[in-house]
Prior knowledge:
Blueprint: E1 2-9, E2 16-23, E3 30-39, H1 42-48, E4 58-59, E5 64-71, E6 83-86, H2 95-98, H3 108-113, E7 124-126, E8 131-132, E9 145-149, E10 153-155, H4 174-186, E11 193-197, H5 201-213, E12 217-222, H6 225-234, E13 238-241, H7 247-254, E14 259-264, H8 269-277, E15 279-287, E16 308-311, H9 319-331, E17 341-345, H10 349-358, E18 363-367
Parallel strand pairs: 11-12, 11-14, 12-13, 14-15, 15-16, 17-18
Antiparallel strand pairs: 1-2, 1-4, 2-7, 3-5, 3-9, 3-18, 5-6, 6-10, 7-8
Amino acid sequence: MTSTKAAVVREKGGAFLIEDVDVADPRPGEVAVRLVASGICHTDLLARDQVMPPAAPAVLGHEGSGVVTALGAGVDSVAVGDRVVLAPMSCGQCRNCRSGHPMHCAAFLALNLRGRRKDGSTAYRDAEGAELNGHFFGQSSFSSDVVVHERSVVRVEDVLGDVPLELLAPMGCGLQTGAGTVLNALRPAPGSSIAVFGAGTVGLAAVMAARIAGCDRIVAVDLHDHRLELAQELGATHVCRADAPSLVADIVAATGGGADFAVDGVGLPRTARAAVDVLNIGGTAAVVGSAGAGQEVSLGLSPLFGRTVKGVVEGDSVPALLIPQLIAFHRAGRFPFDRLIRTYPFEEIERAVADTASGATVKPVLVH
Length: 368
């Protein structure tokens, strides 16, 4: 048992309260990690507000980087002292996992949103001994110490170089989601055109990945001018205000008759619809964001002719492959994700949440 600090949500829409918690020792197949940093993602806020599970009281957070402190029996992929990035959990046994698509695991929701291990237990208890829901996206990284399954641990010891470990926390969700959607799910050919809705972490990672892929027309869409300016600096060739009355027509014009690809990094009905409407015949739209969880989207039948719409989870990545690749791109100056990040002391999680909600900070990272 390890005593540590964690940010606990105790009621729907409630504050993240820094509390003393106890974390159980790792079981067989599990790894204990002491975190150096935790990213804040919009999905954490959806869970806080009970738009999605788990129920309160819970330890949320699903973007963590840290150092291995203990191993459960049978773990041989990492060693104590290894620097690691955490990623979502997958079963490893279903058809999608076995075919190299673990982020589309058939058991993804049960393993990552239930707030419990597969057997229904939790490794987290509060100071009074009461159980806390945890294991959020296999992590619950809003705890300074975590216990995760071996499948959720990505060793970065050999590729880290001089990149600060605390900068890598967002690799576990936002960065791999945006970049993986482009590089893994869409795979645009050099010279392709792409429209990216949302210039947050997911969208900007998609913009950078589109540049790596060789797209020659990259359109970024957002409501915040400072994010659009950053998108241009990171590779966007055109930018559009999301509230422009002629948004779809503007994107069609900017891409020379319609985009080959589109990424909806917001996940609202209107952005998902727009991502389809801007496509040329033969184009593909990937819906990635989840801001509209529980909502429905309507699509015209005619615009679907010859076009493809696909939902993508976590960039359809194999985290142990994509995350080291993205670190290598960063070290080569091709994926400057550090420009999205602003760090905060862990104890200032509420200020970081406010800054992400207002749009002032693209990617808040809490430093433990």
